[in-house]
Write a structure and sequence with these properties.
The complex is a heterodimer of chains A (219) and B (466).
Chain A: E1 2-6, H1 10-22, E2 26-30, H2 33-42, E3 47-51, H3 59-67, E4 74-78, H4 83-91, E5 96-99, H5 104-118, E6 125-128, E7 131-134, E8 139-142, E9 145-147, H6 151-162, E10 168-169, H7 170-177, H8 188-200, E11 206-208, E12 212-214
Parallel strand pairs in A: 1-2, 1-3, 3-4, 4-5
Antiparallel strand pairs in A: 6-7, 7-8, 8-9, 10-12, 11-12
Helix pairs in contact in A: 2-3, 6-8
Chain B: H1 5-58, H2 61-65, H3 69-77, H4 82-88, E1 96-100, E2 106-109, E3 122-126, E4 129-135, E5 141-147, H5 149-200, H6 214-264, H7 269-300, E6 309-312, H8 313-330, E7 334-339, E8 343-346, H9 348-364, E9 371-379, E10 382-389, H10 411-417, H11 423-433, E11 437-443, E12 447-455
Parallel strand pairs in B: 7-9
Antiparallel strand pairs in B: 1-2, 1-5, 3-4, 4-5, 6-8, 9-10, 10-12, 11-12
Classes of the chains: A alpha/beta (219), B alpha+beta (466).
Chain lengths: 219, 466
């Protein structure tokens, strides 16, 4: 999953970005509204964390610009806790609202809920065949037994599972697994897919030659 | 009770009313009585004079003096005018006469009367008998009198009537005055009640004073205007508190998030160090903010303590310029200090704070290779400092709000410098506590000029050599 964090407090931005990366997300950073709006409207993110008080272009404007092009879930992060601000935020197209100061754990939980919801997923645990993906614990079990996966592998599994039934191109996978600063070679995707097949079964991920991968709806 | 306006009004009004009515009533009664007695006396006197005439006509000095046979008969024929007798009848109230000689012997009397040695003419009252005495021929005395109980009774009646009416008028007057005092004082009481409900509340509602007296109208208007200002102050204070807590939340969030992250897993020493450094930065920001807020709070309460001493304003400016020279150099901005030495009474640290703030703003909001001009002049009783930059200027709509707390023209810029939006508000508080003023003018794309005016230190002290 790839997240964009738009926050003008450098120390805060770094802390949030690092904590998300440690959770297994790929994270892009933006320090002002201009950069944030550009990235948000150009790339595909699984969620955007947006601070309202931004220099240059303020948070409301970024949200507005985003919403003309994307349906990406947006979580607003701000020190302004007035009820009018909350209402305005949610009505302007944000999906959730978190007041500073906040607990990182709460941020993670809300983020998970947003991502789950945007892929039409009702529960935290997803079952595909004999594989169960726990999106909260970020673990995968096969026939009841926990399967150890690396952070990247888990991220890939989660992404494909949330998109199950749909064809996912290699580029899409790459875009959702690595952030802008990552210059990993794109064929690493294939390596990850291969490793996952070894651990979860050859049929877990199906290949569409020349197009991409997908996980079937229900095996 | 005498502290109450209402009771005071009533008391004085009632007192005056009582005095006036009593005075008037008494005067009326006195006049009535006097007129009545005058009437009685005049009548009696006319009768007495009539008798006097009769005596003079019918009697000679000789006959008056001696008791002749004829004298008795003549005396018998002597009488009060018929009309008088008819008027008062023959009963108790019948008029009577007494005539006596100089030696006291009685010539004629129709009733038991006591002759008196009083001088003539005289009027006297014996109990309920009114008597008039005139001089007759040959040193005789003629007295005519009658019982005046009826007249006295009538006078008594009048007195009673006047008293009752007077009391009635007094009563009406008092009721009227009570109503008047009440309606005069009622709006004042309304205002007082409105003020007391507002003393505890944090909202100021105006009171309705329509249709009352003109004098109170003005007071009411002023009062409502005061309430409006109070309401505005409440709102401003609420906004200030909200802004302040918002400003504090941001560095707090940095602290909490950084610490939460650092503690969530074992970290290399270098990362701990970086975390601690960012915590330090956040804490320093909060410290600066809290100090700024404290200055403003003290200034608001009028308790901004200044250590006043005689300063040379130009020297303060030069010192600040020297301090910020390196910063200006980095942006290639030239600082130029001109003007004359002008003495002021000021707190050296606080004034330095103001000049440094203005100068650093001028440097920061300047264009590259721009200029900052600081000029100190003496203008009559004032010392004037002008800080002019060649920046992009401030939009006209922002100028009136520039010195407001937490006001930022462009949220972006001040964040980068770590400013809280309180710098200019603090400058204003400090300058105003010194008894001065601060103002700003700006031309878009040309520059901005801040002007500080301080009272000049008037004492002429011989300049000491440094």
């Amino acid at each position: 999953m790839r997240i964009l964090v738009i926050e003008d407090e450098v120390d805060l931005l770094k802390a949030v970005a690092q904590s998300l990366r440690e959770q297994g997300y790929a994270v892009d950073e933006a320090l002002d509204g201009v950069d944030g709006a550009f990235k948000a409207t150009t790339w595909e993110y699984d969620a955007v964390i947006l601070d309202l008080m931004l220099p240059g272009v303020d948070g409301w404007e970024v949200l507005r610009q985003m919403r003309t092009k994307k349906k990406t879930p947006v979580l607003i992060l701000t020190a302004r806790d007035g009820i009018p601000d909350r209402i305005k935020g949610l009505d302007s197209g944000a999906d959730d609202y978190l007041i500073k100061p906040f607990a990182l754990k709460e941020l993670f939980a809300r983020l998970r809920a947003l991502i789950r919801r945007s892929s039409g997923q009702a529960q935290a645990a997803i079952k595909v065949g004999d594989v169960t993906v726990d999106t909260v614990g970020r673990t995968v079990a096969r026939a009841g037994t926990l399967v150890p996966l690396t952070a990247r592998e888990y991220a890939l599994v989660e992404f494909l599972v949330l998109q199950r039934g749909k064809l996912v191109t290699r580029t899409m996978i790459y875009d959702h697994l690595f952030d802008e600063n990552d210059d990993t070679l794109s064929n690493l995707v294939d390596v990850h897919v291969s490793n996952i097949r070894k651990k979860l079964g050859k049929d877990f991920i199906a290949t569409r030659r020349g197009q991409g991968y997908l996980i079937e709806e229900s095996v | 009770m005498f502290q109450s306006l209402r009771w005071r009004l009533q008391f004085w009004y009632a007192l005056i009313l009582v005095l006036v009515i009593a005075g008037f009533g008494t005067l009326l009664l006195v006049k009535l009585r006097q007129a009545r007695f005058d009437e009685i006396d005049t009548e009696l006197q006319a009768a007495a004079l009539n008798l006097q005439e009769q005596l003079q006509v019918h009697f000679t000095p000789a006959t008056l003096d001696e008791h002749e046979a004829g004298t008795e008969k003549k005396l018998a024929g002597l009488d009060l005018p018929h009309s008088l007798r008819k008027r008062y009848g023959d009963g108790e109230a019948a008029p009577y006469l007494v005539i006596w000689r100089e030696d006291g012997s009685i010539l004629k009397e129709t009733a038991d009367a006591v002759p008196s040695p009083e001088g003539v003419p005289a009027v006297r009252q014996r109990g309920s008998y009114r008597e008039v005495i005139v001089a007759g021929p040959e040193q005789t005395r003629i007295l005519v009198g009658r019982l005046i109980t009826a007249d006295l009774a009538e006078l008594g009646q009048s007195t009673w009537q006047v008293t009752v009416i007077g009391l009635g008028v007094l009563l009406i007057g008092l009721v009227g005055s009570w109503w008047l005092a009440h309606s005069a004082v009622a709006p004042i009481q309304a205002m007082s009640a409105a003020a007391s409900t507002m003393a505890g509340a944090s909202q100021a509602r105006p009171i309705n004073l329509s249709g009352v007296y003109i004098e109170l109208d003005q007071l009411g208007q002023n009062f409502n205007a005061l309430l409006d200002r109070l309401e505005a102050t409440f709102k401003q204070q609420a906004r200030f508190t909200a802004d302040a807590s918002h400003e504090l939340r941001t560095p707090l969030t940095v602290l909490l998030t950084q610490i939460e992250l650092a503690l969530s897993a074992p970290r290399p020493a270098e990362q701990y160090r970086q975390t601690i450094e960012s915590c330090l930065r956040a804490a320093q920001r909060m410290k600066a903010l809290v100090e700024d807020l404290l200055i403003l709070a003290r200034a608001d309460a009028g308790k901004l303590a200044l250590r006043l001493q005689r300063l040379d304003l130009k020297q303060v400016v030069e010192d600040a310029a020297a301090l910020l020279e390196p910063l200006a150099g980095k942006k290639q901005i030239g600082i130029n200090v001109t003007g004359e030495s002008v003495p002021v009474q000021g707190d050296p640290d606080r004034l330095a704070q103001v000049v440094t703030n203005l100068l650093s703003n001028a440097i920061f909001y300047n264009r590259p290779m721009g200029k900052v001009q600081l000029r100190v002049t003496g203008d009559r009783g004032e010392a004037v400092l002008a800080v002019a930059d060649t920046g992009e200027g401030i939009p006209a709509k922002d100028l009136p709000h520039l010195f407001e707390r937490f006001y930022r023209v462009d949220k972006a810029r001040s964040r980068v410098t770590g400013g809280s939006g309180l710098g200019l508000a603090i400058c204003k508080s400090i300058i105003e506590t010194h008894g001065g003023t601060i103002s700003v003018t700006s031309v878009t794309d040309a520059g901005t000029t801040f002007v500080v005016r301080l009272p000049r230190d008037q004492e002429t002290v011989p300049q000491l050599k440094d």
